[in-house]
Design brief:
The protein is mostly beta strands. The chain has three helices and 15 strands.
């Protein structure tokens, strides 16, 4: 098994960061860490798509995996230190706030965590359903020094293409992509609105724990979470005003609903209704 050791030890998440005021627990031990760049399109209505790139991390344990934004982790770690020193917390800038756990807290399930306005925390736990992959004949690519092969599947509302490494026989990948005989190092949907590209990976032998952050998150269904997303993106300030009514007023006393605030922001979730 060829594993390229390019990811520094400091890139491991461990127990620091990720909303340290939220309760968390150990769900596994990190055996492999994979760094990905996730390039995505928020607004598909524009003639020319604007793409953003977020550094992501995949922690692979003996039974569980965790996929999350490394930017969000770093910002949470910084704020945890500021909070401990009694300093003002820094403003969050990470665009990606969701995390995905596989086989935790329930074996055979995916748990998707997200928060809206760092105030409403939601957890969607659903039975784990792997894509029904179809191999693409005579397809080869070299990624991080590993020979990879291509497979495709319709999954969670999108047509996905995944390049997996036979010589890294680990059933894992970015987001909820799994079910192949090797680690997924590159994946993208048919429109390339979401693209994952592995940039480094390493074996981990220092006992770093995989921490589950969702103990205090409100359990909801996928449909209920989508409703919250739709309400927020339709009127972000109005959504915030629902939960902070005393704060959301202008100097002239007008409420948030009376102000000329942004409405109907672009929203292109990675998972679509099937």
């Amino acid at each position: 098994m060829a594993v390229v050791s390019l990811l520094p030890t400091c890139a491991l998440a461990g127990t620091d960061g990720f909303r340290n005021t939220m309760r968390q627990e150990t769900c596994d031990t990190v055996r492999y860490m994979v760094a990905y760049d996730m390039t995505y399109v928020n607004d598909t209505t524009k003639a020319e798509w604007e793409r953003k790139t977020e550094p992501m991390r995949l922690e692979i344990g003996d039974k569980s995996t965790k996929f999350y934004s490394y930017t969000a982790y770093l910002e949470d770690s910084l704020n945890a230190k500021r909070e401990a020193r009694g300093e003002q917390l820094a403003t969050y800038t990470a665009d990606v706030t969701w995390q995905v756990y596989r086989n935790y807290p329930k074996e055979g399930s995916f748990t998707f965590l997200d928060d809206l306005i760092a105030m409403n925390y939601y957890a969607v736990t659903e039975p784990m359903k792997s894509p029904e992959w179809t191999p693409v004949a005579d397809s080869t690519a070299t990624i991080l020094g590993n020979e990879c092969h291509l497979a495709t599947a319709w999954y969670k509302g999108r047509r996905w293409f995944a390049w997996y490494a036979d010589d890294v026989p680990i059933d894992a990948g970015p987001w909820k992509l799994c079910g192949l005989p090797g680690l997924i190092l590159r994946a993208y949907d048919g429109g390339r609105q979401y693209v994952f590209e592995a940039t480094a990976m390493r074996q981990v032998a220092d006992g770093t724990p995989i921490m589950y952050q969702g103990l205090d998150y409100e359990p909801v269904t996928f449909s209920q979470l989508m409703t919250q997303y739709e309400r927020y993106y339709a009127d972000p300030i109005g959504y915030l005003a629902l939960f902070t009514p005393g704060m959301m007023t202008a100097d002239d006393g007008k409420s948030a609903s009376e102000l000329n605030t942004p409405k109907n922001l672009p929203f292109n979730p990675i998972e679509l209704a099937e």
